[in-house]
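Exercise 3.2. Students should predict the tertiary structure of the chain below and write it as structure tokens, then compare their answer with the key that follows.

Predict this chain's 3D structure.
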Amino acid sequence: MNPYRIIGIESSPYAVKVRAVMRYRRLAHLWVARMPQFFDETQAVRPLLMPVVQYPDGEYRTDSTSIIRDLEARHPGVRSVMPADPGLAFLCDLIEDMADEWLTKCVFHYRFSHAEDQKTAAAWVMDDAHPDLTAAALADHADAFMARQIARMPLVGCTPANAPLHEGFFTQLLACLEAFVATDRFLFGSRPSLADFGLYGQLTTLAADPTPGALMRATAPRTGHWVRRLDDTSGVDGEWLQPDQLAPAVEGLLGLAGSYYLPYLAAHQRALDAGAETVNVELAGRHYRQQVFRFHGKCWSYLLHAYAALPDAARSRIAPLLDRTGCHRILTAAVAG
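Answer key:
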């Protein structure tokens, strides 16, 4: 059988996330170091997101989380990245979604708010995307890419007014992980989950950029080591924890979801329902404003359906944890409404 082909670049948190999952699951794959947007082979793929994965039958697929979930269905029981307990699987989904859709704002904020980070990141992305460029041409491409990305910052909520929220979230997340991480220790057991890989994708990019990387090295060095180990866990074997055995780090991350991500998603859905162009909401004691980003309506819908579909026993087991972290009130109100 042909291997999977992952078309993406090292500087994409979503591309390396998919690659890390395939490495852990020992699924045969090839890494094609190209930016799909500039690669002839993938020009007809829609939506053209990073990464593009070509399946063994030749089909192309995008969206990292959808791909990883599809791999679960195609290769059931083979080193799954989803906890066996349905309640823990929901918590795993929630943390991974927060990493993909909220922690990524920290990536964008640091990468394009500081001059050194702007230049470093733009050169890295363009060098990966166009391996045949001369140094002079690389500089021109990097400048153009940097200008495009800076212009997009308000769309994703990365404005000077929102900067304290993004930086506060990042430092709290690092503190939460630093007190927990160790070799072969993961959020839901001694084996990595989708949530671990979601955090890995964003944090590996943050660790490589100058400003957040320096912050990680100064305040969360063990987290940096843990992130690097997650790049290839093909040699890790382990077990899932029971719901009453979870580490405080899981509660800490859910506390961040209850303070930042879920209130944002709920407010975003209200804005969508009202036909508004912007989201305005209080998060962690600060006002947050962003243009409506319709994909986050899909994220909210997925999480609500997943929560509502939990068996009663599983929902009851995680209810105290969700209640302590502020998540329960938001989820139950939305499901009831």
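Discussion points: The chain has a mean pLDDT of 95. Residues 1 and 56 are 7 Å apart (CA to CA).
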